[in-house]
Design brief:
By secondary structure, the chain is mainly alpha-helical. It has one domain. Helices cover 75% and strands 0% of the residues. The radius of gyration is 22 Å and the shape is globular. The model has no long low-confidence stretch (mean pLDDT 84).
């Protein structure tokens, strides 16, 4: 039940907050599996050429650039009985679970290469399209629950804590699960390095309200980015001048610091409701799904560019992601089993989210939103342009090192050329991208004071 109610500025119970956050945990069990391990599955289990895999990831994301606005427009123009946005947790959740389970079929490893290429293309494309049907309305739920900025910040913190729980479960749990299924020794050092960067989320995100009061919104972003930059610099220095394995404690600490910097990507979702509110203030419409669709495109663009560049460049210098020593177990049944477990648990969490959320600021336009109006809003909304740019850059920084992280802990086992490539992707490029993120945040104009003024004026308009 609600703690306090005031027109539009609703306070929520912790049951509602955690229930909403469970939806992000559910989606991350699938998304992180794809982001961190699909490339390795396709190259090491199905033996598909890494260059093709990189091109596939980029191509699917290009398709999503057109598909996500279609989904966002469809959702904004309709109002299902089960909830304008909540309904799609069920309508999309069931096929999403099925598609995730079909992504790594064990029999696919025995097929011809031509059939494997078709299977990989179709299964990944279908999964990505269904994922948008769940992810876009889910992101819109937060903007439909309350206008209160402090409450939105708490919702964002709760959501991102849950998302990072999903991230650490997948990044550490997937290789551990594979090892358990095939009864092999678990490489705890590798699993720890893959997941330890998510630890700051569990400390910083619950403390966001007080940290924001201490440092201000932008000040907090700058602080986190600075810590992350220092962490990348330490990882580079150790990799370049010292033995990585003998400096394991410092390496793990530096990895935690990089996680602090990359946490800004999670905090960017708190700006999406601000952009939606600003659009409502200017136009009279509240295009929650449309804005979330565009944010999703930008988020996936960063992931896609990383997924395309990493195997392409690494392959060009002779570093084969499919055959190096840190490759995970290749038994197909193990990959299928672990993926199915994550997908089924994810669906249960989507149900929890569906029953816990309550939409009260969800409006349907008087006339359908057209594609020309969507892109006109994009051109007119400078805040949206900045936020989307930040999404692309910060998630490019987050994912460009994902397939290479497993190799950093064994850096000294590779030739000098490969070592330099690993350092570029795990340290130098992400550090430079964090600087770019800081420059973009500097230009963001919406302060909390201005948002309070906008929200109050919107509520006053609705009462006349």
């Amino acid at each position: 039940m609600e703690i306090k109610e005031k027109a539009g500025f609703y306070r929520l119970s912790w049951l509602q907050r955690i229930g909403f956050g469970s939806g992000d945990l559910a989606q991350n069990l699938i998304f992180q599996t794809v982001a961190c391990y699909l490339m390795l599955y396709l190259t090491t289990v199905l033996k598909i050429n890494p260059a093709f895999v990189g091109g596939l990831i980029l191509s699917v994301r290009l398709i999503d650039c057109f598909w996500s606005p279609v989904v966002g427009r469809y959702i904004d123009n309709r109002n299902p009985k089960l909830g304008k946005y909540r309904a799609y947790l069920l309508y999309g959740g069931i096929p999403l679970t099925v598609a995730a389970c079909l992504l790594m079929l064990p029999h696919a490893a025995t097929w011809s290469m031509g059939l494997k290429l078709v299977y990989a293309t179709v299964s990944y494309t279908v999964l990505s399209m269904i994922y948008s049907v769940v992810n876009i309305p889910y992101g819109s739920i937060m903007a439909s629950m309350t206008r209160d900025n402090d409450e939105v910040l708490i919702l964002t913190s709760t959501r991102m804590v849950c998302a990072n729980i999903g991230q650490i479960i997948v990044q550490a749990g997937f290789p551990i699960g594979l090892a358990i299924v095939v009864h092999t020794a678990i490489d705890w050092n590798q699993a720890t390095f893959m997941a330890i960067g998510t630890i700051p989320a569990f400390i910083i995100l619950p403390s966001l309200p007080i940290l924001k009061k201490w440092f201000g919104k932008k000040g907090l972003y700058y602080l986190l980015l600075s810590i992350g930059f220092i962490g990348f610099a330490i990882l580079f220095s150790i990799g370049k001048f010292f033995d990585v394995e003998s400096c394991n404690t410092i390496v793990q600490a530096a990895k935690v610091m990089t996680g602090v910097g990359l946490l800004v990507g999670s905090l960017m979702w708190a700006l999406v409701p601000e952009v939606i509110t600003e659009a409502e203030y200017r136009t009279g419409n509240r295009p929650a799904a449309t804005v979330n669709a565009l944010a999703g495109v930008a988020f996936k663009a960063g992931f896609s560019i990383a997924g395309w560049i990493t195997p392409l460049v690494m392959g060009m210098i002779g570093f084969n992601l499919a055959s190096e020593q840190s490759a995970l177990p290749t038994e197909p049944i193990a990959w299928f089993t672990v993926t199915c477990i994550f997908a089924i648990v994810g669906f249960v969490l989507l149900l929890l989210c569906f029953f816990s959320c309550k939409e009260r600021i969800a409006t349907t336009p008087k006339k359908p939103v057209t594609y020309s109006e969507m892109f006109a809003e994009f051109k007119a909304n400078k805040c949206l342009q900045l936020v989307l740019s930040i999404f692309v850059v910060v998630f490019l920084a987050s994912f460009i090192s994902a397939p290479v992280n497993a190799y950093y802990t064994k850096l000294n086992e590779y030739q000098a050329t490969a070592q330099n490539a690993i350092l570029w992707f795990t340290c130098i490029i992400p550090a430079v991208l964090l600087i770019v993120v800081g420059c973009l945040i500097y230009k963001y104009p919406l302060t909390d004071e201005r948002l309070d003024e906008i929200n109050k004026e919107i509520e006053e308009r609705s009462q006349h």
